[in-house]
Amino acid sequence: MSMAAVMNTYGRLPVSFTHGKGVYLYDEEGNQYIDAISGIGVNALGHAHPAVSDAIKKQADLLIHTSNLYGVENQKQLAEALCAVSGMDNVFFGNSGAEANEAAIKIARLYGHNKGVDQPHIVVMENAFHGRTMATLTASGSRKIQAGFEPLVNGFVRAPYGDIDALTNIAKNNPNIVAVLMEPLQGEGGVNCLPENHLAEIRALCDKNDWLMMLDEVQTGNGRTGCYFAYQHHHILPDVVTTAKGLGNGLPIGACLAHGKAATVLGPGNHGSTYGGNPLVCAAALVVVNTINQQQLCKNAQQMGALLLDKFNRAFEHNEAVTDIRGQGLMIGIELVRPCGELVDRARAKGVLINVTAGSVVRLLPPLIINPSQTEQLATVVIDIINDFIGNS
Ligand SMILES: *Cc1c(COP(=O)(O)O)cnc(C)c1O
């Protein structure tokens, strides 16, 4: 397929799809694939989910957009559902993960100014990914994403991921810090996990220094790691949480949730989005949130994720070419000793769509609805291609 009329910003694979059903995608030649990347963590309920499709069809016949000049009933209902599932107080809606993070960054800055910090700074992490807008690419911890787009945005301080001592030091030396922004489990950066008590320690550090604790759950949210939000594994509440990807199951939506003092920072005129939280996307997202809850998809993500980890741990136990197997719920990374980008093609040839991130990490983000036999099938193919790759190299 020639995509010459589209600006050349993506390295695309030589395949495109006509339709999907559940965990499966079908290409133009009718081949079936297990979609183990879910549109990069977006299709949490799989493809063509009947309840989501029905909600979209019904809402499209009623009202697609009215703007935030008026009350929006679906937006209200979705915000209430998100608050109920998260313990947060209120929500701002945008159209993407980057926009959700922009809202968080603006909350942190205004929070800082309100308490007399003229040059508010936000601590961000090495290897972080927060999006591609100017502020969010600056917050991201990857030179590849930033190079060529300088001047970057001021007001960010970088720290190593998972290093509480480094953050404690920053707290001692930098009175301009007003917030921490981080992923509870890094996705694009290579499926990197935090030490066991780290989020609780961050919570305490933020309380002590009057910083906002802001978690980017764009990828980890909406059931992906086996709780609705990943921070819920740690029994803490952040001040700000951002989410997107799985929330709309493919319709563009981003949400910035705030709690306590962070929830009252923005007022009329401080922030906005023309499309943000429109009736159509909110109708779809409301079905997503309800379905994740009613069908206990967090539990399924825990169980299927444990099944995958168990299979991979057994298969690669004595294999020195596999340096690490990690993740939580249905967000799993298998790190190899060397770059393994070609595994994407090898998996596709065997009917499985995967992704390789950070050069040498096979990343799996299957839909939360995946069942045990599909999970076994996925594990078998992934184990085969990795064994083959290592054996033949
Ligand atoms: C994908 C992602 C983003 C960016 O989301 P967009 O919808 O592409 O703007 C931000 N943060 C994290 C953790 C992500 O995984």
UniProtKB/TrEMBL annotation:
Its EC number is 2.6.1.11. It is found in: Cytoplasm. Keywords: Amino-acid biosynthesis, Aminotransferase, Arginine biosynthesis, Cytoplasm, Pyridoxal phosphate, Transferase. It is an enzyme of class 2 (transferase). It comes from the Bacteria. It catalyses: N(2)-acetyl-L-ornithine + 2-oxoglutarate = N-acetyl-L-glutamate 5-semialdehyde + L-glutamate. Binds 1 pyridoxal phosphate per subunit. N(2)-acetyl-L-ornithine binds at residues 132, 273. One of its GO terms (biological process) is L-arginine biosynthetic process. It holds the Pfam family Aminotran_3. GO terms for cellular component: cytoplasm. The modification N6-(pyridoxal phosphate)lysine is found at residue 245. Pathway: Amino-acid biosynthesis; L-arginine biosynthesis; N(2)-acetyl-L-ornithine from L-glutamate: step 4/4. Its cofactor is pyridoxal 5'-phosphate. Pyridoxal 5'-phosphate binds at residues 97-98, 129, 216-219, 274. Belongs to the class-III pyridoxal-phosphate-dependent aminotransferase family. ArgD subfamily. May also have succinyldiaminopimelate aminotransferase activity, thus carrying out the corresponding step in lysine biosynthesis. This is Acetylornithine aminotransferase. It comes from marine gamma proteobacterium HTCC2143. The gene is argD.
